[in-house]
């Protein structure tokens, strides 16, 4: 169903809210994305890093009310909330879990359903359209997140079901994989720097915003070209979905050469994103879980890495 029109609840993520007069200033010093680029019409991908540049979380962030909402994997939310609160004690910013206040739906080819709700289809990735409390966010071509306040969720779901078949979360994640958008999950927390999941290629890293936690490492990797591992898309001829963090091996190298980022069922077997060493990809001898594990086949991504373009953000 990932290739056809559908909707599904995005039950795998929660919402971290940062509100107050200092919310923007506080987050600007914490996140890889530039909050100055955000508006009522624009959201962004982003990440929060350790001092050593490893990501503790990745998310989509958008302004809402007197602050910002960050949608991230549910398994990361509690730890991120607790950690961020330590740094916010001297700021006029409050941090809360607003997961129960919002219900989010993924829409594939759902423009007509959006129009029925009074929303125009947003344009380029990151663009947002708002109407009577609803927020539509373009995430990749043909794919939109619809954010609904919890009190409107039942009615919105009924309206969506009137014009779209309901798909599964797997269908939505398969579309995310095909769009080449990686994501930090609980199992991969503090494992990758942003460029390893190509976050800079999809607008999630700003190299002009100034200092934030981990910025020195992230910038060095970009400007000095020392990144030896990055994200690739692959196919796997088995039905069992590998968990995030599952190791990928190359018998040629006699060792692990990377880890799974996210995976989903496809028409035949699975598709996945994985962070891999460049030389192991060139050898094209990749196996899941062990050197004798099932073979992985390289697939294309819908974008190319372009360091000169990326550093303009």
Automatic annotation (TrEMBL):
Q: Which residues bind substrate?
A: 145
What Gene Ontology biological process does one annotation of this record name?
A: iron-sulfur cluster assembly
InterPro entries xrefs? GcvT/YgfZ_C, YgfZ/GCV_T_CS, YgfZ/GcvT
PANTHER family associated with the record? TRANSFERASE CAF17, MITOCHONDRIAL-RELATED
Output this protein's name. Answer: Folate-binding protein YgfZ
What is the originating organism of this protein?
Answer: Pseudomonas urmiensis
């Amino acid at each position: 169903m990932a290739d056809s029109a559908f909707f599904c609840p995005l039950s795998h993520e929660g919402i971290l809210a940062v509100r107050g007069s200092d919310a923007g200033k506080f987050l600007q010093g914490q996140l890889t994305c530039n909050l100055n680029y955000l508006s009522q019409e624009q959201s962004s991908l982003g990440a929060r890093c350790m001092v050593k540049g490893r990501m503790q979380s990745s998310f989509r962030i958008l302004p809402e009310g007197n602050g910002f909402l960050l949608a991230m994997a549910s398994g990361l939310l509690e730890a991120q909330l607790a950690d961020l609160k330590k740094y916010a004690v001297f700021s006029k910013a409050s941090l809360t879990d607003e997961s129960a206040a919002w219900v989010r739906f993924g829409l594939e080819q759902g423009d007509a359903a959006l129009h029925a709700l009074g929303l125009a289809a947003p344009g380029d990735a990151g663009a947002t359209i708002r109407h009577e409390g609803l927020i539509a966010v373009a995430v990749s071509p043909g794919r939109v997140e619809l954010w609904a306040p919890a009190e409107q969720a039942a009615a919105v779901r009924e309206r969506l079901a009137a014009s779209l078949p309901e798909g599964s979360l797997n269908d939505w994640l398969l579309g995310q994989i095909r769009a080449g958008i990686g994501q930090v999950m609980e199992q991969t927390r503090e494992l990758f720097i942003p460029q390893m999941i190509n976050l800079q290629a999809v607008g999630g890293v700003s190299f002009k915003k100034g200092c934030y936690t981990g910025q020195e490492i992230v910038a060095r990797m970009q400007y000095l070209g020392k990144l030896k591992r990055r994200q690739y898309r692959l196919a796997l001829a088995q039905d069992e979905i590998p968990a995030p963090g599952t190791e990928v091996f190359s018998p040629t190298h006699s060792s692990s050469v990377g880890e799974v980022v996210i995976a989903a069922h496809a028409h035949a077997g699975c598709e996945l994103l994985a962070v891999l060493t460049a030389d192991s990809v060139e050898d094209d001898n990749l196996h899941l879980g062990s050197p004798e594990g099932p073979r992985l086949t390289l697939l294309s991504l819908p974008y190319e890495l372009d360091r000169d373009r990326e550093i303009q953000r």
